Inverse folding.
């Protein structure tokens, strides 16, 4: 039992086999990294870690296992890093222990991780920031003394000391800018970093010259403070991106890396790319189909949400064709592979996703668009100032250079450099309070531009858990028996019935047996009782079979009582749809489900455009058609059959209960159950866009005042420092005005269990049983 | 002036000590898991030492 929710337990496979293979452990073993001293490091992503108690539970639960050298949980990134003594010891103990504790983990290939400790980009920026901060503070200390009236020898001393501090500071902390400017120049473009690098280097050179010739003014503090402010913006931006990506993505594979091959009566693990058509594979409960296959023996239920977006389990029997990536739920199946991994349905989906993603990369950030205008303008101004001064003073290039450099410094890109990241960081924080995770800043920009919203139905507009709409009357004793039967299964329908029946006495049953595809049967006081498919249940009952095929309950010799199930709409779905319409967005519903269900949900929410039976490629086509007509599309979806369309749309959102690929592909992930996250995020995006525009306005206004002053040669270092700091503070203060307005913060957190994989139905059931 | 010749280097030295300490914290990856660190302070359980095989 975990502190944060129950694990999704599956009925065990009764058949035992010669050499039990644990596919997760095998995968983990391949993902481990060996250190020179022989120890092996494994990293697992555990998305169900939610609080500090989880951290203690996992560490104390794993530490005593044999062969473990250290266990460390990272609460921020939801990862566990385990070091084992040698590669001989199987990591299977880790995966089973984690499952037992209630925190299923998936291996993270250390090659997948772009970020490793102190070599992370954000750590490097933090180091540069620290050095720049140290330099700026100390130089400012000395500069203030100079401005307060130090003169002659003291002033020269301070200048020299400032120079001594400034040179290494700029050399180290200026690296990010110099490198970026160099690569832009090599590619023949100008970006924001070119004028910055130029300003800093020229200011440094000039100030050194001034100090060595006992000049009156040196700009060391301006140069270093400039770097400091810009690094703040850059660091925050990078940090936000790294955190969001790690927190949202449970980096798990869409397919297992290998499969269990049955050959000559033995079970062997083969890597996925060695699977060939005709091989006989065994897929146990809880595993995904590695390739498209045909069932040879065994009965089970599959979660085909990959194909249809519906997580309602579908029964399969020998002869059925199953797609790669579908999840085997209840019993072990022996299947014959029909394709290789590359040709499977799953590979096709991944290819569609990659193609769609490539189209997205062309979006140009607002900040970069500004830079395109800004950089050339600044250079022209500085060059112009230099020339004009030269002409006016008749060749005094010392003063001309001075004025030109002043122009470069004072056209402070600090405000510009901070304007956008600060707003995005604050926006991300506000969204986080409201339970919405954002992948990166451009997502917020793109969200502000949308005019159409496309919804998926199952799992997005509905919770994916059915609800009992109405039920036939049952005598009290009947309810007790039904309650007992419903408790034995994790099928979404039985969870709904459990919830409907509520608390109460539970009858004693014997010989309980679950029939995949039909229901649960048991013996009560010598009579058989069944809960499941209506036709199957009716077999033991008197009277005629119920007309429709739903879920029913019957006691041998009695009448059947049927339950009518319907999908539960997400909380506040109607309000959310209305709010989006009020904001002027067109809403549409695209679903892979049947027409009746789609029409019903669309009607309830007031969505006029609804299409059913859409395959993943059909959804992409619809998105492309809308984009070709000039619309900007927001896609809200969850299932794997949405992942390509999530990548193809201009912006996408997924609920936390979405499958891993959905969460990977989406720009935003909302963890609260309410659908109002969508209009809320849109509102924040609009407000953020307004604030960014205001910030740019403020920066430009500041420049309009400061540049003429610089061109006239009136900008002393003091003035430059004040101007820079003031403009940066004003921009940051303006960004802080971004507020959520009602949805976020302490408002009721409904069922955060939506984060648990594959078990959205456990939430309400857990409450019912509690 | 004499005072300054003593004070300025002291100020710089102290500043650099602070900077060195900060850089050390970055290198020992103490900023990687701020939420976890916040919890570990409050955690009452005895740390259990694992045993090597």
């Amino acid at each position: 039992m975990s502190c944060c929710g129950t694990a999704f337990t599956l009925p065990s496979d009764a058949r035992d086999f010669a050499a039990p293979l644990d596919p997760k452990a095998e995968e983990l073993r391949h993902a481990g990294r060996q250190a020179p001293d022989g120890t092996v490091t494994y990293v697992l992503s555990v998305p169900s870690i939610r609080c500090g108690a989880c951290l203690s539970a996992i560490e104390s639960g794993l530490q005593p296992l044999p062969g473990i050298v250290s266990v460390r949980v990272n609460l921020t990134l939801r990862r566990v890093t385990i070091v084992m003594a040698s590669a001989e010891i199987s990591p299977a103990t880790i995966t089973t222990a984690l499952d037992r504790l209630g925190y299923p983990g998936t291996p993270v290939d250390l090659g997948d991780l772009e970020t490793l400790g102190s070599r992370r980009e954000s750590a490097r920026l933090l180091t540069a920031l620290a050095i720049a901060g140290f330099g700026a503070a100390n130089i400012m200390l000395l500069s203030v003394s100079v401005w307060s009236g130090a003169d002659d020898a003291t002033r020269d001393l301070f200048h020299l000391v400032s120079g001594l501090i400034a040179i290494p500071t700029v050399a180290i902390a200026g690296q990010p800018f110099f490198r970026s400017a160099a690569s832009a120049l090599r590619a023949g473009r100008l970006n924001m970093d070119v004028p910055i690098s130029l300003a800093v280097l020229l200011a440094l050179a000039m100030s050194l010259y001034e100090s060595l010739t006992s000049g009156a003014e040196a700009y060391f503090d301006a140069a270093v403070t400039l770097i400091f402010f810009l690094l703040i913006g850059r660091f925050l931006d990078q940090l936000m991106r790294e955190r969001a990506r790690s927190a949202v993505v449970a980096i798990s594979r869409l397919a297992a890396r290998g499969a269990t091959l049955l050959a000559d009566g033995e079970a062997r693990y083969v890597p996925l790319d060695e699977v060939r058509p005709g091989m006989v594979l065994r897929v146990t409960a809880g595993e995904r189909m590695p390739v498209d296959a045909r069932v040879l023996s065994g009965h089970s239920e599959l979660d085909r949400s990959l194909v249809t977006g519906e997580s309602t389990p579908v029964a399969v029997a020998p002869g059925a064709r199953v797609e790669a990536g579908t999840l085997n739920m209840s019993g072990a199946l022996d299947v014959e592979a029909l394709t290789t991994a590359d040709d499977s349905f799953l590979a096709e989906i991944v290819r569609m996703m990659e193609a769609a993603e490539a189209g997205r990369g062309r979006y140009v950030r607002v900040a970069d668009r500004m830079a395109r205008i800004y950089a050339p303008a600044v250079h022209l101004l500085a060059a112009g100032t230099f020339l004009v001064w030269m002409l006016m003073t008749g060749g005094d290039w010392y003063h001309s250079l001075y004025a030109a450099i002043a122009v470069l410094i004072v056209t402070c890109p600090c405000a510009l450099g901070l304007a956008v990241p600060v707003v995005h960081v604050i926006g991300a924080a506000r969204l986080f309070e409201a339970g919405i995770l954002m992948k990166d800043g451009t997502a917020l920009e793109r969200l502000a531009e949308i005019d159409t919203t496309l919804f998926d139905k199952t799992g997005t507009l509905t919770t994916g858990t059915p609800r009992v709409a109405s039920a036939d009357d049952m005598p009290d004793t009947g309810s007790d028996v039904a309650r007992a039967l419903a408790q034995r299964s994790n099928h979404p329908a039985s969870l709904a019935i459990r919830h409907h029946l509520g608390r109460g006495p539970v009858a004693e049953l014997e010989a309980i047996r679950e029939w995949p595809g039909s229901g649960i049967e048991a013996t009560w006081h010598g009579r058989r009782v069944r809960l499941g498919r209506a036709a199957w249940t009716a077999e033991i009952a008197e009277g005629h079979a119920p007309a429709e095929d739903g879920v029913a309950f019957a006691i041998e010799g009695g009448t059947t009582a049927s339950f009518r199930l319907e999908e539960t709409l997400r909380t506040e779905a109607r309000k959310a749809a209305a709010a989006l319409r009020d904001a002027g967005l067109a809403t549409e519903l695209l679903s892979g489900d049947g027409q009746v269900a789609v029409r019903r949900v669309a009607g309830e929410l007031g969505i006029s455009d609804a299409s059913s039976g859409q395959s993943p490629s059909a959804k992409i086509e619809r998105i492309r058609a809308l984009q070709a007509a000039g619309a900007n599309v927001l896609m809200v979806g969850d299932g794997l059959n949405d992942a390509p369309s999530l990548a193809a749309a201009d912006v996408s959102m997924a609920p936390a209960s979405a499958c891993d690929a959905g969460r990977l592909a989406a720009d935003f992930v909302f963890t609260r159950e309410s659908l109002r996250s969508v209009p809320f995020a849109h509102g924040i995006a609009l407000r953020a866009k307004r604030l960014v525009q205001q910030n740019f306005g403020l920066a430009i206004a500041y420049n309009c005042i400061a540049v003429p002053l610089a061109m006239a040669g009136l900008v002393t270092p003091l003035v430059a420092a004040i101007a820079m700091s003031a403009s940066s503070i004003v921009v940051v203060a303006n960004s802080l005005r971004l507020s959520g307005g009602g949805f976020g913060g302490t408002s009721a957190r409904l069922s955060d269990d939506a984060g648990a994989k594959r078990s959205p139905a456990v939430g309400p059931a857990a409450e019912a049983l509690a | 002036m004499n005072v300054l010749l003593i004070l300025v280097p002291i100020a710089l030295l102290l500043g650099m000590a602070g900077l060195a300490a900060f850089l050390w914290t970055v290198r020992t990856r103490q900023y990687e898991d701020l939420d976890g660190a916040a919890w570990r302070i409050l955690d009452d359980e005895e740390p259990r030492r694992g045993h090597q095989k």
About this structure: DSSP finds 26 helices and 27 strands in chain A. The first strand of chain A starts at residue 33 and ends at 34. The CA atoms of residues 166 and 220 of chain A lie 6 Å apart. Chain A touches chain B through 39 residues (CB under 8 Å).
